[in-house]
């Protein structure tokens, strides 16, 4: 059987309709997941070291609030600078989101998530082109210093929902169902790795296995190595959640495997 190998630059950016499918699927998966929590589950610690499960849900509620009430974003930035002066502003902003929802009773937090995200996904889909093209400055995040609002809302929010769902499954010791659009979501990450300043390594053929897997070429020129690793696990590595990925060199130079293992990109 022939394996399709796609250069990362050939990946098409997800359009609005596709992005909404990804986002809505994640919102539904989160609703199902939170419905399954018992009281203890809300307080399990996560790989996001300062947060428990409830804090992650609170942060995601804050993401939706920033969509529904855009004036909250600069207000939270100001609070974040005061509360966390030594933290990168984007991270501090997310910490404020979690702080503002901390202590909410689980049933209320579950209902709040569903209501806020139901409205947010509709708002994103209806935003006019002029709003979507609005540049947003992201302080202290190399490679993401200025992003279009449409990209943030279409691509990054779905990615955040997806990755945090895996965080929670990890915390609860549950298997992670990457969902029906995992391959597309992961392909968007691979595109960003190539197109941003994140891939500085040698050209490689990257074989991602398991849920959301695919085979891609990264870098310019003829690949010097073929490297294999788990797709979801590699998303955790790229985002800085796991610095010890299992990366297998299938063929070629060991430096190709090393380039894959050390690459990082803000999610």
Automatic annotation (TrEMBL):
It comes from the Bacteria. Residues 25-168 form the Mycothiol-dependent maleylpyruvate isomerase metal-binding domain. One of its GO terms (molecular function) is metal ion binding. NCBIfam families: maleylpyruvate isomerase family mycothiol-dependent enzyme. Pfam families: MDMPI_N. SUPFAM superfamilies: DinB/YfiT-like putative metalloenzymes (SSF109854). This is Uncharacterized protein (TIGR03083 family).
